[in-house]
Description:
This protein is an alpha+beta fold. Helices cover 19% and strands 30% of the residues. The strands form 3 sheets. Strands 1, 2, 3, 7, 8 and 10 form a 6-stranded antiparallel beta sheet that branches. A 3-stranded antiparallel beta sheet has the order 9-4-11, with no helix packed on it. The longest helix is centred in the N-terminal third of the chain and has 34 residues, at 2-35.
Amino acid sequence: MLDALISKRRNKMRKIITFVLTLVALIGVLGMVLAAEQSVATQVQVNEYVSVTITPCGTTLSFGSGNPGDYDLGITCQSNSTAAISIRNEAISNKAIKVETKGTDLNNSGVIIPVSNIEFDEANSKTSATTLSTAYQTSTNSLAVNSTSGVWYWLDIPLGKGSGTYTTALYIKAA
């Protein structure tokens, strides 16, 4: 009877050991399955984005009044510290911009003052000013993100021009 009891306990112990080993094996297999990973290449294309604010120094830009032969007449609202037109490359932009300007001939009922009589500069320096034309010209080559630049303008009135109001259009472009 003692042999039967020992044999019964051995069988029971074998079943327990088999169960535990099976359980350990299953946990090992499941653990390997749960621990599997794979990487997948992912990408995003971020587009160039520019947000620009262009602000004239007044509601209307004017060279004021002058006589034939007057030169270096500045836009009346511009000063040493205030440009005729301010350009801001906003903080939400992600690239520097180039600022360009152009103009049209000044016209008074068919009497013309050529646009080449207007000069401009980004640093309020008449000595380094550039002659304006009808084609876009660079004012600021690289305006950084979250930065402001300006454009100052000056007009020379040629001798012999008749009196009256001459009008033109000045253009600013961020490129």
